[in-house]
Specification:
The chain is mainly α. The chain is built from 13 helices and no strands.
């Protein structure tokens, strides 16, 4: 029988996402966007470690050094949020628990005689949802002051979790790979959100006229919302810009703002 899956030590997530040490000392224009960025980086840290062959064989006494190296390497790609990312000491308990889990997952894959490529998929399936669920649960508590306990591990976005600030969190989570500073991320979020507000007013005021070549990408409320929540699967930016500059839509937007 394959061994049971060890629990992950995720206590560091609350300390990281609280931003308690930074909100008073740093200028963070959009804390919820930053929380999304940090969550993206935490997920990246976990998957990079878990899928590294050398990680499974690191001895316990050298794990802190390994954690520090992995953290340093990660922050080369996430320089913008480096001052807010957990310290090596904060990450070490999680790293140790992750190693325990990865070793068991590897044993399971070998025990079942599956190809090595299944190991990477299994690691993601058995790691990412736990991190997301804990992070979303804490952010819900941060918003409302209520403890919602363990959330459904099938939750993938802040919108799914029911966060009031889901637009900001999901924006940071989606674009976290860009290594933006909190100021740069906030600027990008506010510009995009302003565009969506304008386009939404167009949609509410009148049935938008599709631009030439964009007949199948008609601007509608669902797609506009997707610009933030699922930007990779939304309408193209070019079609959105053309639709917004369409004279009929400009008139509708002007009427909506009156």
């Amino acid at each position: 029988m394959a061994p049971a899956l060890p629990n992950l030590d995720l206590d560091f997530i609350q300390r990281c996402l609280s931003l308690e040490e930074h909100l008073s000392a740093s200028q963070i224009p959009e804390p919820w966007v930053l929380r999304g960025q940090l969550l993206h980086a935490i997920l990246e840290y976990a998957i990079r470690l878990a899928t590294s062959y050398s990680f499974r064989t690191v001895e316990g006494s050298t794990l802190l050094t390994y954690t520090n190296t992995a953290r340093t390497d990660l922050l080369q790609d996430f320089r913008g949020i480096a001052p807010f990312f957990p310290t090596t000491n904060d990450l070490e308990p999680f790293t140790r628990s992750l190693q325990d889990r990865v070793q068991v997952i590897h044993q399971r894959v070998e025990y079942e005689g599956r190809p090595g490529c299944h190991f990477i998929l299994e690691v993601s399936i058995l790691t990412r949802p736990n991190i997301l669920a804990r992070a979303m649960s804490y952010m819900l508590q941060l918003e409302s002051g209520q403890d919602f306990g363990e959330l459904d591990p099938e939750i993938w976005t802040a919108e799914d979790a029911g966060l009031h600030n889901h637009l900001a969190v999901d924006y940071g989570l989606e674009y976290g790979e860009n290594s933006w500073s909190p100021q740069e991320a906030a600027e990008g979020f506010n510009k995009l959100y302003a565009t969506v507000q304008l386009a939404t007013s167009v949609y509410v005021a009148a049935d938008p006229v599709p631009a030439a070549g964009c007949e199948n990408e008609k601007v509608n409320a669902i797609q506009l919302h997707a610009l933030i929540v699922e930007p990779r699967y939304s309408i193209s930016g070019q079609c959105l810009v053309v639709a917004l500059t369409n004279p009929n839509n400009q008139r509708a937007a002007a009427q909506a703002s009156d």
